[in-house]
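Bench notes, afternoon.
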Amino acid sequence: MSLLVKICGLSTPETLQTALDAGADMVGFVFFPPSPRHVSLETGRELGRQVKQRALKVALTVDADDATLDNIMDALSPDIFQLHGQESVARLRDIKQKFGRPVMKAVPVATAADLAVLPGYAAIADRILFDARAPKDATRPGGLGAPFDWHLLENLVLDLPYMVSGGLDVQNLAEALRVTGAGGVDVSSGVESAPGVKDPDMIKAFIRAARATQELSVR
């Protein structure tokens, strides 16, 4: 199975075009105002049109209510919702039923105990995204550019696809895949020159490195 590469937090036509031209499988748009990668509904609409089915459109939300998700559906018509908050299993089920879209649940990881939530989420989610747990004083979820201990996933048995995120870059990408056995990678800050500012050359280099890792694994 081919490796899925997701570039998250895209916010300009230029960097989105770079990701598409470089062969990203998923392009992520953040609808969460505290994030430096947040896009407005109108920007999301414009960027969504630009994708033209060349990649899957992912809408990242954090504990969003139905009205917010409704607005995102209207603007972006995402292919999948990435739920990055404290959403319960029941909430995942509710979102899938109401909006008719697959859901990818982000699971923050710092210790083995964090994996205890997996059976519940795996029963409903279409995909799991493992990310580093945010520091206690953080104002936003996610690893905020820091990796977690990938060895926590080393012997993971999970009956649905999963991706790994958190502090990935061209230097550590291959090791993350080797240890976790993940079928996909998700990068945001690892292809930025400053918070929220995507670098086209870094995007191309990351996708190139991901494809090179995949080619080595099938030889």
